[in-house]
Design brief:
By secondary structure, the chain is mainly α. 56% of the residues lie in helices and 4% in strands. Helix 1 packs across helix 2.
Amino acid sequence: MRFSSAAAGPITPVAPGGRRLTMSTTHTPDAPTDMTPELVARLRAGDDRAGELLIERYKASMMRFCRGYLPTDEEAEDAVQDVFCKVLDADAVPDRFRPWLYKLARNQCLNVVRSLRRRGERAALPGDTRLRRTQTGHLTHMVNVELQERIERLLTELPAHYAETLRLRYTEGLSRSEIAEVLGTTESTVKTSLFEGLQRLRAHKSLLAYRT
């Protein structure tokens, strides 16, 4: 299966034989659990609905995640297309689908970032740090309307390993073990990065006035 995309339109998968799978443009909440290998198997077997479900279930989170690395929506959309193509071309899909998907997306984005930098183009990471307001945890206890944009800016100023870990935990909602898989590190390292990253945010002078 391949993907096509109009300049300003949504990602549209094109199945073998030219059959188009129309993807809804409405927001679909992220899946609460990992995608199952059976869904991908159905897609490979020619089940067009399985392809629609795969994209509907993960496109919003993938677009948000990739946009955090890449400077434009167009580049993020291209990266998402490439990621889904890799999923569909994979010989085997692991049971823990979600961290595998995010690892594919991260690697794809880092490759694009390196390419942009070789061409002298600006690419900051991470960029899109919008926090999910429904996510619970230490970081979101700090978030309210007044602090939201300030914290987003501070996250972009953190060292990359802190910012990436915080984004994966509090923006994407991954567990510590899932983050360890995505970043290729240990769960204890992730725990330390989360703690130290939060400490850096809390200690920032621009946030001191908001402490209670």
